[in-house]
Design goal:
356 residues, 15% strand, alpha+beta, 3 domains, elongated
């Protein structure tokens, strides 16, 4: 809710002209506001969707201040239906996922024309004083429609977000045929906004990847425990080797072998970083390469008997390291130390340049 700002009634009437002209699209009574999933006392108000903002006022036509959210702040809008059965009294909601406050300010400054109310969201113009809450850890707000009408409002909101009338560029708005200082500033702000959007998307994808990786580790450990329980005791040597090879191919070491640690670690004291890494590479790849030599029944027979190319080895090593990723150069340097450390693996270079 720190991206939602207080505005006065006089301020509402200053809706701009030309590209900045703001008109009402749809209105709905009986709307409650939530900061994330928490109600914050803004209940049963009038919610207005304009071409540029969402406006909420507790008592329409009373002259009291209203609160506003620029549509440029909305990343996407989703429906959260009301409950049925035991949850039949649950209010249907629209969930708005928002830009961060710094990214919102950058996005507003990147618009092709100046909006009359933009200072309420500019830190340097004292906009923080108008925030509904000083700070919020939530990245979304919810609009609760106690009196219904959520489907029509959501459709209108989706259409407006796709059209982006606040970003329409009018050619006649350019002055003297050149961008000038203001144009250069807008271009810089636009580039910064695009960078912010890409970074937010990248971090969102990274968080999903980390979450899936954790699920993979948990699944492998559950598999190991259930296999032992199903056997009613200790596994045979062949079964243990098969399970360990499967877990290693997923980038996870056996819990009991590692004392409960689910990934490789570079904290073992072998000396320098590359020496440590050489030992870890040997510990990881030796069981796999040994399995390759077991003949046509080996699950790794498609990779060649007892050898693996350096590119495939690099991928397996980084999968096993989890978040402690290493560069190709570090892996190459570590592999060159295998012979010096008298480890069971050796790196070989063929005349073609292939490293295995």
């Amino acid at each position: 809710m720190d991206r939602v700002r207080w505005c006065s009634d006089d301020f509402q009437r200053r809706v701009g002209v030309g590209p900045a002209e703001e008109t009402v699209v749809v209105q709905q009574n009986g709307v409650c506001l939530y900061d994330g999933g928490r109600r914050i006392g803004f209940d049963n108000g009038l919610l207005s969707l304009t071409t540029h903002r969402l406006l909420w006022v507790g008592r329409p036509n009373s002259g009291e201040s209203f609160i506003a959210l620029p549509l440029v702040a909305v990343l996407n809008a989703t429906m959260e239906a009301g409950g049925g059965g035991f949850l039949r009294n649950r209010t249907p909601k629209i969930v708005l996922h928002l830009l961060t406050q710094p990214a919102l300010e950058t996005a507003l400054l990147a618009l092709p024309h100046t909006l009359p109310w933009i200072d309420r969201w500019r830190k340097n113009a004292g906009g923080d004083a108008y925030a509904v809450v000083s700070s919020s850890a939530e990245d979304h707000i919810k609009l609760g429609f106690a009196a219904g009408g959520e489907k029509n409002f959501w459709r209108a909101l989706e259409e407006t977000l796709k059209a982006k009338p606040w970003a329409v560029t009018v050619a006649s708005a350019r002055i003297h045929g050149g961008p000038g200082i203001a144009g250069i500033e807008r271009q810089q702000a636009a580039r910064a906004h695009a960078t912010d959007a890409r970074l937010e998307g990248a971090f969102e994808d990274l968080n999903k990847l980390i979450s899936q990786a954790k699920e993979m580790v948990t699944l492998s450990h559950t598999l190991a425990h259930r296999t032992r329980e199903a056997k009613g005791g200790e596994l045979t040597n062949d079964e243990t080797a098969e399970l360990r090879a499967t877990m290693l191919s997923m980038g996870v070491e056996d819990e009991e072998e590692r004392g409960g640690t689910a990934r490789m670690s570079l904290t073992v004291g072998f000396g320098s970083f590359h020496t440590q890494l050489a030992h870890q590479i040997s510990n990881l790849l030796t069981p796999i390469l040994s399995e390759m030599e077991n003949g046509p029944q080996s699950k790794y027979r498609h990779m060649g008997a007892g050898c693996i190319d350096l590119a495939s080895a690099y991928c397996r090593i980084n999968r096993a390291l989890g978040m402690q990723l290493v560069s190709p150069e570090d892996v190459l340097k570590a592999c060159r130390l295998l012979e010096r450390e008298r480890l069971p693996l050796r790196m070989k270079k063929f005349p073609s340049g292939l490293l295995v």
